[in-house]
Amino acid sequence: MVDPNGNESSATYFILIGLPGLEEAQFWLAFPLCSLYLIAVLGNLTIIYIVRTEHSLHEPMYVFLCMLSGLDILISTSSMPKMMAIFWFNSTTIQFDACLLQMFAIHSLSGMESTVLLAMAFDRYVAICHPLRHATVLTLPRVMKIGIAAVVRGTALMAPLPIFIKRLPFCHSNILSHSYCLHQDVMKLACADIRVNIIYGLIVIISAIGLDSLLISLSYLLILKTVLGLTREAQAKAFGTCVSHVCAVFIFYVPFIGLSMVHRFGKRHDSFLPIIMANTYLLVPPVLNPIVYGVKTKEIRQRILRLFHVTTHTSDP
C-alpha cells in the first residue's frame, strides 16, 4: 500500500473479496458451503471415532486414514469460518498477521496431507507386494513416527514463508482474489521483486507435491505389476483395498494442481470457474474422503451402519 506521502509501506490488513460479481447471491451460496463444511467435519469425526473405538481397525491403513481425516478437518476449518463471515456478515477485512497465520496453516496442512497420502501408498505397496513383511515393516509405533514426520515435514517446508512475506512492501492494492489467504495471491500484491517467493514456491511444490505424486505413481506401478500376476480373485481383492486410496489421491491432487495452474497461467478474475475452484477446493477432499472410504471400505461401512443402528441382510450363512 502507499502512505499519504506516496511511499511504499507494509500492509496492516487485506481485503478478501469473496465471490466477485456474486455479491448479491453469496449470502445464499454460503448455506450450501456451510452444509458441506458440517458434512466434512461430521464425516471425518465419524471416521476417527470408528477407528479409535474399534480395536480390529488398529492397523496401519486405518491409522493413516485417521490422520487423513484429522488433517481434512483442520484444513477446512482454517478457511471456512472466515469465508462464512465474509458471505453472511460482509466481514472482508483480515489483519496481516491473521492472514499470515491462515496462509501458513493452509499450506503446511496441505503438505502434511500429501505426506500421509504417500505413506498410505507405501502401506498398500508393502501389503500387496510384500505381504509377509507388512506386519514387521509397518508396526503401529513406526506408523506413529511417520505421522510425526509428516507434521515436521509440512511445518519445516512452510517455516520460511512468514519471512518471505514479511520482507515484502505492499502498494497500490490490498485486495486478495479469494475468500482466504494464499501465498500465490498475497505475493502478487507486492511492489518489489518477488522472484525469491516464486522460486521458494516452486521448490516447495516440487519437493512436496511433485515428489509425493511421483512416488505414489511409482508405488501403484509396482502394485499393478504384482497384481497382474495373481489369480482373478486375488486381483479383485487387491484392487478393492486400493480403490479408496486412489480416489483420495485424485480428490486431493486434481483440485490442488488445477488451482495452481489457474494462479500461474490464468488471468486475474478472468472467468467464473477459477473463482468457484478457489472457494471450494479446500472443501472437496474433506467432504469426499469420508464418503469414499465409507462406501468403498467394507470394514468402515459396516461399523458406520452399526453406529447408526442400521441393520443389513447378507447372504452369508
UniProtKB/TrEMBL annotation:
UniProtKB keywords: Cell membrane, G-protein coupled receptor, Membrane, Olfaction, Receptor, Sensory transduction, Transducer, Transmembrane, Transmembrane helix
Subcellular location(s) of the protein: Cell membrane; Membrane
One Gene Ontology MF term: G protein-coupled receptor activity
GO cellular component labels: plasma membrane
Species annotation: Nyctereutes procyonoides
Name used for this protein in its record: Olfactory receptor
GO biological process: cellular response to lipid
Cited CDD domains: 7tmA_OR51-like (cd15222)
